[in-house]
Design brief:
alpha+beta; two-stranded antiparallel ribbon; 50% helix; 258 residues; globular; 11 helices
Length: 258
């Protein structure tokens, strides 16, 4: 199920700086949440495991069933919506997992995504959105008049924006280095591809061509790349959000949906 992934020099440099003990593996199959059978195999290559079950009281009564696993005693790696890379610090050492669905993407972009995961590990960012929100998720859900699945997806986007506020300073700093400049170029290039979609985002939401949740996901990517965002998503690109975290996100949802 797992095979150690060789890292090119710039990604290895990022690991050395931000998460020197982290392991990086390719996975044989795609997954949303890593199956228990695969998790058992993964545990054979680490020194220790510390499950991070979250408090069931953090979930509103009408939450999607898929979130129940987060409040169990199991080691849960990955979640729906995680994309091509998953990582966990519930193992010692931490592990970054690269899924097969990433095949076909440009090499520089793949390298950036792996480097991004290593930076997130090193910054000790929340592994799941519920770790970011904590008990504030009940309030966020109460302020968000959408169905439980859309609320969950919006929470993912909002927590991703928070992560982007933390990581983009690192990415921007790569421009000043010789060994990580190509990773900076990949980050910049991805942002340039996103900006035109952001430029028309407000109209797309107002006209119903794009859902608010999909717009939030795109805006979260914009935060990571330091792009210009339309209202109301521009409020997620604010130093106050980085300072106050989940409670700021709740206040944002209350203002948006009031």
């Amino acid at each position: 199920m797992f095979e150690e992934r060789p890292l090119r020099g710039d990604v290895a440099a990022v690991r050395d700086i931000h998460a020197p003990d982290a392991l990086v593996y390719d996975t044989e199959r795609d997954f949303e949440v890593l199956p228990t059978s695969a998790l058992t195999e993964l545990m054979m290559v680490v020194d220790a495991v510390d499950p991070r079950g979250y408090d069931a009281a953090w979930l509103p009564d009408d939450h999607p069933a898929v979130l129940d696993s987060l409040v169990s005693d199991d080691v849960v790696v990955g979640a729906p919506g995680d994309g091509s890379i998953a990582w966990t610090t519930q193992t010692d050492p931490p592990i970054v997992l690269v899924k097969p669905r990433i095949e076909g993407s440009p090499d520089d972009f793949v390298a950036f995504l792996v480097a991004e995961a290593l930076v997130q590990v090193g910054l000790d960012l929340p592994e799941h959105f519920l770790g970011f929100f904590g008990d504030a998720y009940v309030d966020f859900a109460a302020a968000t008049p959408t169905d439980p699945t859309d609320t969950y997806q919006l929470a993912l986007a909002v927590s991703a924006a928070y992560a982007g506020l933390s990581t983009r300073e690192v990415f921007a700093g790569w421009a000043e280095t010789d060994d990580r400049a190509s990773l900076h170029d990949a980050w910049t290039d991805a942002g340039e591809r996103i900006q035109p979609r952001l430029d028309g985002l407000g109209h797309a939401v107002a006209s119903g061509d794009t859902s608010f949740t999909d717009a939030a996901e795109l805006a979260a990517a914009g935060v990571k790349h330091g792009l210009d965002l339309p209202a109301p998503f521009d409020a997620l690109d604010d130093p106050a959000y980085r300072e106050h975290g989940a409670r700021y996100a709740v206040s944002w949802a209350e203002r948006v949906f009031s």
